[in-house]
Amino acid sequence: MVDAIVIPLVKIVVVLNATLVAVTYMVLLERKVIAWAQSRLGPMRVGPYGILQPIADAVKLMIKEDITPNRADRWVFTAAPIISMVPALIVYAVIPFGPEISMFGRKVSLYITDINVGLLYVVSVASVGVYGIILAGYASNSKFPLLASLRASAQLISYEVAVTLTLVSVILMAGTLSMVGIVNAQYNQRVWFIFVQPLAFAFVLIGGLAETNRAPFDLPEAEQELTGGFHTEYSGMRFALFFLAEYANMIVVSSVVTTLFLGGWLRPFPNTTHLFGIIPLRPLDFVPSWIWFFLKSFAFLYLFIWVRATLPRYRYDQLMRLGWKVLIPLAIVNLVVTGIVKVLLL
Amino acid sequence: MTTPTIHHGAMFDTNELVLNMGPQHPSTHGVLRVVLRLDGEKVVDSDVVIGYLHRGIEKLSENRNWTQIVLLTDRMDYVAAATNNVGYCETVEKLLQLEVPRRARYVRTILCELQRIASHCLWIGTHAMDIGAMTVFLYAFRERELILDLFEEFCGARLTYNSMRIGGLPLDVPPGWPKKVLEFCDIMDSKVTEYEELLTHNRIWLERTKGIGVISGPEAIAIGLSGPPLRGSGIPKDVRKDEPYAAYDEMQFDVPIGANGDTYDRYLVRLEEFRQSLRIIRQATEGLPEGPIVGKVPRLIKPAAGETYHAIESPKGELGYFIVSDGKSTNPYRFRVRPPSFCNLQALRRLITGHLVADVVALIGSLDVVLGEVDR
User: How far is B204 from chain A (nearest CA, A)?
Assistant: First the structure.
């Protein structure tokens, strides 16, 4: 009973809450990091160094008037933010934060579940999220959001193909779709997949930026062109849901990239006791596995923010060109080469 | 009632989308309104609507006396107020046939060039922001702040300076000010390189600006462009060189020109102007002559009947004043400004046709218009 119901429920509650807190603090982190990049201070007023800013933001957004435009499609308008938030949260079900550990005399796994089609689940659920954006643009009955939602759907289609094709080469390496299985494969092969699949890593990173609508691919919400894009007509908590979904998706992408390419919870040089036969690596084992996972994911989140502070934005047609003419062919080449090498060498 | 068009064999009817951009829009640089007719995201046609910031400065000026008008000129191109002041004062001086002391002309040159850098800082910031690079914006404003501090020390104001008087300057430069200007030049030199590192060779920046909004030299002249948009098309025309005013005849500087007339060339031209302006400021500050700061100005300014046109090179282009005096009253009979932004804005419709919505904001930024000057 305990193993079947209580422990999973506890895990779900913990992960859900941790995610929501992490997401709100991601917003603060982004504001702070961008501020530092731009020689500013960022939020400094609420709490010491602005650490309570997310709470103030949340309170403000919750007590704001929630406006539905008169000519909007009422139901779709309400459903859109939810459709975009929910997939971002349920993806966490298969993300492995660590291996099985013993806690209070029980064996507890640091993931909610491990299904044998884990990666497929991530890809398919994550792509549902964009429906939120498309529907928001359609339901707002306003021109700027409409253009934004067209951009979002075109962007999703082109990058989904490239990213999924690239992921196949990782699956070839691991021989499994299970997220835990992929990490274990990296343990058994004693190498992070970033070193055997560097191209795939780069494609997934670029595609990840594009799928989460982050700079330099933040076209659906290009503030300077579309005055806020798909969420132009949204206010209050519904706007906040879109906002949180974006950050939740960022965390998802960085967790997935960490799991697939950086060995998930594994320490550097997994399953090796001595580097070059000289340097002992045992001390690294004292760091708990989940800390490795969070460190790696954090590095990606930081990279995302850094990119946003640095790069200008792509144009719609250039984005399409990059997706269809560069990423997809290269992803196919990468897949074919991986297949040939795998068959010939192993 | 019109009958709806039926497309036989077509499942969906296709229509142009009319998109109203502005006057409340984050990147129309004030209150410009552009009505776009879109085919998908491609601009088929557009309508540029101005007038939302009209304050009647020209008409107001005809009811103020000659000295009061200096203050009104501040409010036209409000990011380059000192340049406007200089333009107006020189026009009246031409009308009065007044000799301006050399020191005053030197200080005017320094102020004009500082103002050019401040205006270009605002331009590079907002232009980069329109294309999505937001860090440049804050970097450029950081340096603009230094210039505003210099202006504050000189005349007490930070935006609308009222920093000129007919016949010279209201005040001499404060002690130690020239040294601070030179220090600023040293700081600015490295900062221009910093902007360049962020943008000039950035692949996304190149893709967003190269070949966007190309306008050829003859066409640019035909439309009446001036300033960096004209020079970006390869026409080496600069009022500072062609009809030197203030102390520009004594300064060594180059006029940078572009080759292709696209957004990228206009960007490069302005970037080089930063450097040339610094060069002029250094020369003028180091060679600042001693002497009086005001010429022999009559107590009551009342130019003889006549008219004159005088142009200077503002950061945006040729800023001209046409003033008619009737010789009887203490105010101009007719006061007319040729604002560079207004004339440069004529090119917008021609430039954006055939480009995408994202390019529209890039091109507005590339022309560097200030609506205060367009509408007056």
Answer: 6
B241, part of any domain? yes
A225 close to B (CB below 8 A) = yes
Q: Which of B24, B204, B209, B360 is the best mutation test for A, with the most CBs of A within 10 A?
A: B204
Please state the domain count of chain A.
1
Residue A287 burial by Cβ neighbours in a 10 Å radius (0-12, 13-18, 19+): exposed
* CB < 8 Å to A39, chain B: 138-139, 142
Predicted confidence (pLDDT) at residue B6 exceeds the cutoff of 50: no
Q: Please report which confidence band the pLDDT of residue A1 belongs to, taking 50, 70 and 90 as the band edges.
A: low
Tally of domains in chain B = 1
- Asked if the C-beta of B27 comes within 8 angstroms of chain A's C-beta atoms, the answer is yes
ipTM of the complex: 0.79
Instruction: Please give the model's pTM, rounded to 2 decimal places.
Output: 0.83
pLDDT of residue B322: 92
Taking phi over 0 as left and psi of -120 to 50 as alpha, with beta for the rest, B306 belongs to left
- The DSSP 8-state label assigned to residue B99 in this structure reads P
Q: Is residue B208 part of a domain?
A: yes
Domain range holding B124? 17-375
Cα of B368 to nearest chain A Cα, Å: 16
CATH of the domain at B163: 1.10.645.10
CA distance B21 to chain A (A): 9
Of A73 and A104, more confident: A73
What 3-state DSSP class applies to B314?
A: strand
A219 interaction partners in chain B (CB closer than 8 Å): 358
Q: What's the CA angle centered on B148, arms B143 and B149, to 5 degrees?
A: 95
CA angle at residue B125 from B123 to B128, to 5 degrees? 100
Choose between A106 and A321: higher pLDDT. A321
B9 found inside a domain: no
Determine whether the interchain pair A37/B135 forms a contact, defined as Cβ–Cβ distance below 8 Å: yes
- B117-155, pLDDT tens digit by residue? 999 999 998 888 888 888 888 899 989 999 999 999 888
Does any domain span residue B10? Answer: no
pLDDT at B10: 58
Q: What is the extent of the structural domain holding A23?
A: 2-345
